[in-house]
Design goal:
With about 180 residues, the chain is mainly beta. The protein is about 10% helix and about 40% strand.
Length: about 180
Amino acid sequence: MTDDPRICVGVISGAFGVRGEVRLKSFCAQPEAIAAYAPLWTADGGRSFTLRLTRGTGGGLTARLSGVATREDADALRGVELYADRDRLPHLPDDEFYHTDLLGLQVLDTSGRPLGTVRAVHNHGAGDILDVAGPGGGLLIPFTKAAVPTVDLTLGRIIADPPASDDAREEIGHDDDE
């Protein structure tokens, strides 16, 4: 669990055109909302940007960032993650969480047995998946109410009831035949 004062809300994916615009991938539920959270910061907090969205491009956005005037400036920022101050982001309902708040939480099964800690949250289009590192190896758990009935940020733990099918265990590296 983290108490980071900033949360990653997007990443610069490269230059767009020749006048310093950038291609931007937003991690916000409503991609255009990223502009409302400016100023946006680099991961180390060493640089901040104001942001003006210019257009949408097939699944992404284009934007002008303060201090970025040329294609070379924009290209130099490829891969830079952009962070917003947490207090500028919306407060979430009790059953929603920022991914960063789940990282490092202890994961227990429904009988209280430790499964490990959350090392990442993935989303490949079909919903969030918790990547749990544990003593028996990695475990992927769908982040649904059925598989994760309890998230307690105050206590720093998650209660999980992961799917137990043999197929799922083999897919995530838990082949019991070894």
